[in-house]
User: What shape does this take?
Amino acid sequence: MISKEQEQSIRELLEKMTVEEKVGQMHQLAPSIVGGFDVSFEELIEMVTDGRISNEEFGKIMSTAERDFHEEDIRAGRVGSYLLNDPKKANELQRIAVEESRLGIPLLYGFDVIHGFRTTFPIPLAETCTWNEKLFEASAEIAAREASAYGIKWTFAPMVDIARDARWGRISESAGEDPYLGSLFARAKVRGFQGKNPADRERIGATLKHFVAYGAVEGGQDYNTVSMSKSMLHNGFLPPVKAAVEEGAMTVMAAFNDYNGVPCTVNPYLLRTVLKESYGFQGFVVSDANAIRECVSHGIAEDLADASRQAVKAGMDMDMGSNVYHDHLVSQMEQGEVSMEVLDEAVRRILTVKMALGLFEHPYVEEERMEQYDSGLKEEHLEAARDTAKRSIVLLKNEGVLPLKKEQKIALVGALADDGENCLGAWFANGRGSECVTVKAGLERAGAKVSYGECCGVESELDREALESVCKEADVVVAVVGEPNAMSGEASSRADITLPGHQRELLEAALETGKPVVAVLMNGRPLALFWEQEHVPAILESWQLGVAHGDAVAAVLFGEYNPSGKLCATFPAMTGQCPRYYNHPNTGRPGGRSKFTSRYLDAPVEPLYPFGYGLSYTEFSYENMRIKEDARCFSVTVQVKNTGACPGEETAQLYLRDVTASIVRPVKELKAFEKVLLAPGEAKDVTFVIDKKEMGFYNEDMNYCLEDGKFIFYAGGNSRDCLEQERMVAFS
Assistant: This one.
């Protein structure tokens, strides 16, 4: 991560530091609001980034608020990191740290830059539906370029949680349910944020979060408990973390949840044994907001001093926001409860990241860089956002209604159709709803003949009279339905993931007009759409696509872009099927038509839309599957043909099943995929290569096993509809 000379500089700096200064490096702060406010600055930041208040509302609050920036603490060396996105103030505080503190150690400024900064890209769950590593990396690079102009040198992204339960609100921030696809996403985001040289002024440090298994919280309920075997952890949830550490991610954020009874915040097995020792992670670990303090609520620590002691010994290097290290570590050092070795290791890791980010050489941000983004969005960034947005859209159903024709008269209904703020999705950083292209604006910009009526919102009742009026002269009805920003993201788990409010009534009433109906979904999670699939002739999953939402939807609706998105998370038929994921372990009685199998009496056996699913305006066939083996790998070739009438891009997918093993294995696992662009009638051979080393698994003793036996190879356009062939494999 850094040179030998820089390592020596850190050793020399550590020798000069007092205990108080060392603890200061482990302390992260944010401005405190002084006066009559009901929430802290940290919660205000959360409220604006997850959509509970708009940027404009946040600006009004902050313009009248008196804030304490803790200048004296910075001057005394008692602060190592700061949450801020104001370059002018960042330079003022940095000047105090560098020029007025005893040792001149620079501050590290962090912020949640999840899916864009000024230019808001699709939420991660949507972006992952592109199955395109180049796009993953490019959007992170643009976000780094913009965020760094505001003084931010560290982002709390990418989120690498495997998310198998659509009820969990934070599935919107994830790459979905698959370890292989999630690992590619994690690697690409680290490359995009950090580049080859994280010290570059337009690059920022990445944070892997949340470590670990946060996406497996019980019942899909945020902050809940997690219990699972170590083999499940290592096979199903840790691969994206390991991949991103190998890619050079600079920091890791521990998860709020406990793992098998021990909160991740104070879990030495996770933080030391797995992350730092087994994976060789060289950066530092930061807590989630107030998570060390919350170990008292967990019941693992008797008081804050105990929480402090447990966290630092477990390997937690930096405390985000709870002041626990600040209040207790110095006295714990004096009393011999925490060793200097433990303290020095944490501080060395923090200083190493600061050194690698170039903060010692270039601590200040060029304030004029912000102006180029604050005044408006760059066209090349907007174009990248548009391209990513249209590729993120997944066509779920189409009974010949789509694509629409420009001469058709469109009745556009639903409050979300003209709502820029809710295009942004959760954790939208410095995006602005006023800059988002709504679906209404996108259709109008595309030259469509549109009559718009709100008719129904997420929280408002259906106005049947308005619906009848707007639909009267229409040839087709486009209903934009789904969730607002605040219904997904942190602290936004839902017990019922059907369309909220009266939106199903809106669809029912639209169908009663006798006009063809297209449901455009705008949401932050997979929804339970059993009724919609049965009744609505066309369903387009547009997610929350950010600044270019409406342009992307219009391009797909009119066939200017043939939809190519593939689901990265399973859609259950009903909420009660959750958690639902394709790569589940098999049972002794796999689900089937018989009652005495693994199924619900009142729900289908299968999910509504499987992982990897996504339709096109053309059709693709898979034929002639062939497998070749050599000493190192398997090569699987399949012919993919465009059997429809228009060009299209298909994501061909390869899955593997280990039929018999020493522990129960998943029914399928994604191992490779290839994107192929085909003209009508064109066929191409697609070849996937699987290294034999990638065909194993971790057992309960944490040994990686390659076991001889029968394997099934599957090739197709999604995880359900596949060609298959068996092979006996001997690894020795």
